[in-house]
Amino acid sequence: MESAQQIEHWIRNRQSTFVNGLKRGGQVPDELIEKLLDNASWAPSHGLVQAWEFKVFTREGLLSFYKGLQRIYKETVPAEKFNETRYQKFPEKADFVSHVIAIIMRRDPKRRFPRQEDLVSVAAATQNIYLSLQAYGLAGYLSTGDICYQSQTREFLGLDEEDECIGFFTIGVEDENYVRPPRTRIPAFEKTEWIRS
Ligand SMILES: Cc1cc2nc3c(=O)[nH]c(=O)nc-3n(C[C@H](O)[C@H](O)[C@H](O)COP(=O)(O)O)c2cc1C
Fold first, then answer.
1. Which residues lie with the beta carbon below 6 Å from any ligand 1 atom?
2. Ligand 1, residues 12, 14, 15, 16: which to mutate, most atoms within 8 A of Cβ?
3. Domains in the chain: boundaries
4. Residue 112 CA, ligand 1 centroid: distance in Å
5. Helices marked H in 14-161 — which ranges?
């Protein structure tokens, strides 16, 4: 395959697989997660600030993660929006998920560039994880939700004031019976203005 076809293949086949598409009990070797994180670390960053940081939850750690999120959900969701089923489901996810990578933007201690640039570089690192999934035969997706931005979550992850939780990359093994909904995109030309003179 030509390089151009290869890159198109990997970019356009990058995809999210949500928890309902993961196989119960699917375990991913830690070594593959390490490879994903090494790939993430090859993202660009202004001045090579490399503002990403990862916390990996797996095995018993996964249960602590979901119990932590469950507690934060209960503490933060307005009473009228509280959903008992959703609440109960948090720890059940651990049956389908192999690893959760909390992706953190740790603000450059030297504040060399605007905070936004640190955020952008960590987004690029996140895309590298997304792009790597298929190559290693893994499935997963990035999740955020309101919970990502709660002060309790920040505390749970040990974030300082200018740090940010980018999201939780949930990884497992795809369920072979999962029927994937079609994926589409708005064509780039609809979002592009060319200025030629
Ligand atoms: C910043 C960000 C936050 C996301 N948060 C969620 C989320 O909270 N829940 C969810 O189901 N998917 C989340 N996603 C994944 C999107 O749903 C997914 O990328 C989108 O549906 C497109 O599907 P694709 O990744 O297969 O192209 C998030 C993606 C990004 C980039």
1. 15-16, 18, 141-145, 167, 183
2. 16
3. 16-191
4. 30
5. 30-40, 60-76, 84-92, 115-135, 151-157
Q: Which of 149, 145, 142, 150 is nearest to 122 (CA)?
A: 142
pTM value surpassing 0.85: yes
Reply yes or no on domain 16-191 having CATH 3.40.109.10.
yes
| 107: its two tokens | 């603000």
| Burial call 174-187: b when 16+ CB within 10 Å, e when fewer | bbeeeeeeeeeeee
Q: Which pLDDT tens digit goes with each residue over 104-145?
A: 999 999 999 999 999 999 999 999 999 999 999 999 999 999
CB 139 within 8 A of CB 155: no
pLDDT, one tens digit per residue, over 146-173 is 999 999 999 999 999 999 999 999 999 9
Look at ligand 1, atom 22, and give the residue with the nearest C-alpha. 16
For ligand 1, atom 21, the nearest C-alpha belongs to 16
Provide the Cα torsion 15, 18, 24, 30; round to 10°: 60
Q: Which ligand 1 atom sits nearest the alpha carbon of residue 15?
A: 26
